[in-house]
Amino acid sequence: MPPPLLPSGARSPTAAPIVLLICSLPVLFLLAYSAYPGGPLLLLGGGGGGSDPSSEGGNNNGNRKEKVAFLFLTNSNLSFAPLWERFFRGYGGLFTVYVHADPAAGVAHPGGVFSGRFIAAEPTQRASPSLISAERRLLAAALDDDPANAFFALVSQYCVPLRSFPFVYRSLLRSGERRRSFIEILAGEPGLSDRYVARGAAAMLPEVPFEEFRVGSQFFVLTRRHASLAAAEQRLWGKFRLPCLEAMRDSCYPEEHYFPTLLSMRDPEGCTGYTLTRVNWTGSSDGHPRTYLLGEVTEELVRQLRTDTGGPGAGGRSYLFARKFSPDCLAPLMDLADSVLFRDPRPGPNSTKCRLDDDDDELCS
Ligand SMILES: *[C@@H]1O[C@H](CO)[C@@H](O)[C@H](O)[C@H]1NC(C)=O
Ligand SMILES: *[C@@H]1O[C@H](CO)[C@@H](O)[C@H](O)[C@H]1NC(C)=O
Ligand SMILES: *[C@@H]1O[C@H](CO)[C@@H](O)[C@H](O)[C@H]1NC(C)=O
């Protein structure tokens, strides 16, 4: 993860989401696929589905259930695999999993829901276009693998869910609202101009004028339409993939700019502008956010991370995921799984949104 653009604390109100949505556009898809440097992206079996892809924002997809694709981007072991396993348990058919693991890292395959879900991967390096490539590879793999994938959530090995699967699912696939991507999009941040000229003063022109240049958390949840756009797009990518000048190394974090800039330019109305993944930049060091340690995992912490009550613009925003947690937090997180993390608030008497579809009203109980 790159260092924060802002001084510590400055981003805390906004930093945090990661969800990706997918809408089925097979043609675009194939394009994205074949246009991708490095050949076939995906070595997955299964997936797919017989029915026609749904259109973005459509609430009625016939009989096929839409899915949330979880895109794990990692360069070390998936220490929280057992927690995710529990998160997913019982909801087969409503999610898919894809893992991009840096091949140099020797990442162990955890089995279970991760079994056979590792996609063809290339080396990744912080603060380089290789992270964008990896994310596009994940998007393309998930788009191509399963037309039912409707949202695409990017997570890392340090991310944990703060809510139950049904809660996450219905938060994303809420009916009766226009679907938007949950991606942080910030303008006017200090340091943004240095980031902009990191490849040379005019390197981004004419495709990306400075006025259009944006920054945001790497962790997003995209709609299928936006996932297709980002996986296939070449014009901006041609710029963001350029190496930074040696002298600008400290301002080179293309992975924090490509997706927010692209979506801000192409479909700002289709984006929330904020992330669903909470991160704590207060007291960050070396550009890394606060990493929660073993002794810090408590019910109180989970509740604090779910809702951001402080800071301008926070406005009680709520989060579905959080980072970063050190690997030894697994045990205390597992202890809190059923009693706190995956325990939903009981739906109110007027709640009608808890049904996943006609077959799944039990998810609401
Ligand atoms: C990754 O997990 C494997 C299997 O559990 C283990 O053997 C290996 O030591 C782990 N690697 C690291 C760096 O912790
Ligand atoms: C964020 O980190 C700061 C500094 O370590 C700490 O005081 C604060 O309690 C943290 N906030 C949350 C929600 O954990
Ligand atoms: C539930 O619905 C009733 C009748 O429409 C309304 O009066 C009440 O305020 C609603 N309660 C909540 C918590 O929204």
TrEMBL record:
Signal peptide from the UniProt entry: none
Primary site of residence: membrane
Membrane topology reported for the UniProt record: Single-pass type II membrane protein
Subcellular location, record wording: Membrane
A Pfam family matched in the record: Branch
Molecular-function GO terms, alphabetical: glycosyltransferase activity
Organism superkingdom: Eukaryota
Keyword annotations from UniProtKB, A to Z: Glycoprotein, Glycosyltransferase, Membrane, Transferase, Transmembrane, Transmembrane helix
A GO cellular-component term linked to this record: membrane
Protein name: Uncharacterized protein
